[in-house]
Amino acid sequence: MKTNQTDVVAEYLREVDQRLAGLPVLQRRELLADLAAHIATERDERNLASEGEVIEVLERLGTPEAIAAAAHEEAGTQPRRPEAFYAPPSQPGGPYAPPSEPAGFYPPTAQSAGVYPPPVPPARPRSTNWALIGLVAGGAIVVLFVLCGFFALARGGESAPEPAVDVYPPAPTATADLVDPPTPTVTG
Amino acid sequence: MGDVSQLATGLRRGTLEFCVLAMVEFEDRYGNEIVRRLGEEPNLAAGEGTIYPLLSRLRRSGWLESKWVESPSGPPRRYYGLTMAGRSALEHFRSEWVSFRQTVDRLVGTGEAA
Predict the structure, then answer these.
(1) Does B56 contact chain A (CB < 8 Å)?
(2) CATH fold of B2-108, please?
(3) What's the predicted TM-score (pTM) here?
(4) Which of A9, A141, A176, B9 is most buried, by CB atoms within 10 Å?
């Protein structure tokens, strides 16, 4: 019975720990120690015997997701987003250490990349998406610039008589035809 | 549902920590006591376990101090107490909160006089 309880608690703590990747390692250990002490104290003070009672303690603590989210919020770290933005698409597999940040701020980065590979794959589609969007947007801007340049050249060079003739060739002839006939009728 | 919980989260942010500070204002308390007490309030904590990261930040920012104390019967307990900086932060919050609450009550129409 005691081993069952320990199993449940150990699994719970492992679930929390897995979601703390990205948190400074000392805060990570501190939180796990606090949670373990909390569970042990509850068990001791309330004389919890059954596994169900221990599970109740865990339920009151909250889901591993909720605890990890609170930990990341308090620490100012973000569980997945930074990896999505930091990971360059050219080297998706390799562990990435931001060079500008002090080394102490992200101690578990190299570790987490080695121990928890799952966060890396979701980062790849996102970053490629961004790269695609960037490419498309950049292409659109280039096309716009080329068009603007073309029109500026056309207007500046010949004050746009050519495009007018090209685009509306029938218009002048039509008006000429309309204008011409009355004059003969008036004179004749 | 999502909006309601988001509102609770937003209101909690910035105020819950002072509820924690107030709990250890006159005597040191250990984690389970603090967490259990806050957990009794339905709109304060999402789960008891989410208080521990908050305690950690308050300790790192120098408002709380903590020490592990051996318990005669059971496992060691981590006691938290208010530092001088924490005490003045709590006092500052109290004066800010009163005027803040009055302003919101006046504008939203939740004051007793309204």
Answers:
(1) yes
(2) Arc Repressor Mutant, subunit A (1.10.10)
(3) 0.62
(4) A9
